[in-house]
Fold dGTP triphosphohydrolase.
Amino acid sequence: MNDIRKYRPGEAASSKWSEERDEFERDYARLIQSPTFRRLQGKSQVFGAGSGDYYRTRLTHSLEVAQIAREVAKRLERTNPFLSKREHPGLIIDPTVVECASIAHDFGHPPFGHKGEEVLNHILMRDHGLKYEGNAQNFRILMFLEKRAGSESGLDLTAAVLLGINKYPFLIEEEGRLKGVYGAEWDVIRELRDTWKMPAGCSTLEAQLMDLCDDIAYSTHDIEDGIRAGKIQMNATFFEDQRLRRHLVMEILNDPNQHKFGWEQVDIEQMVSRVLHDYLAQWEIIFAECNREESRTRREMKARWVSSFASRLDIIDDTERGWKKVALVRDGAEDMDLLRTMEILKKLAWVTLIKDFRVLRLQKRSEIIVERLWDSFIDQEKGQWIIPPDWIDSYERRNSNWSWPRFVADYISGMTDAYAEKVYAELFASKSGSIYEMD
């Protein structure tokens, strides 16, 4: 079982396993020492990277997801005896694997958050019939673009960690597929899944746990940042605003994944109203407990919600697929009410932070930056002279399986927000920094 989970598909067969460190600890070291991990500190979570020292970036978000996931993984190991039987490689929860998956789950996000992802996908689809998607880009980075000593490409991660990151086990090029894995990397992932005898469309327990802990972080930490920024105002006027509630309902109805939450079983407007009312009521109680100190109240609210979600994570049978499922559980069954509550809080963060007109103005600026960078690089004859030489060297060594449009998308998507703005300024602004600044 360990051989299957610790197999490294990209590593030379002659490579020896470490006698001093567990293989998954080696994966952890490779991830946190990678340039891609460091660059997450310069990529937007909700607020643009550099907006302030307080607000989360992709880096701090990933670390928080990893902390939640590792703690839950330890508890599930203790409370679910069947895990110790290790009957199937996909029905195991190793805290280090879950932590690695959480650390790496946002590696593929481009600069400027979801707007950057949207623009790159639009351009690639329109002009070249190629897709761009953050989860798929994760695997392109981990298995092709990243470098480490002794490897031709990628970080040569273990099978368990690769499948622990793979929350969308599909080929993204399939018709109508919005998320998945690009073809070259899918060939390897599919082979691993076949070796493990994974049921079609099912993720490992470790991937499911990472995904839910990511949702917990979104629905709690982003709201904390929103309150700190004054975008979410903790008073009745804000929470009872009918326009806010209408927007939340519309976001729920327009979500392509709404089927997962069983919204047809409830009155959506009524539930949105209840969740908002209860959230504000809880704030007022904790505000009084914290001697009316807002900063302490924010942190206490966040902590209690993280605990309320994380403590309810458990493993149940997925009877429809003949598999196991990590879920929010109550009385032995999936707690759909709590799952919908978490989704409403995620939508609250989205509507108030991302849909704010000032944020949308910044996103429009981000869109222009990405589009103009693309236009500058996409002509290969001209673009090759204004892309760093080490990138061009990598492309020339591997251009037999690396098209120029995909190369340009890889280069832009690897930029931090600040670096994208710097390159844009060098190309289009009247003045920029010294040409001797290191890229």
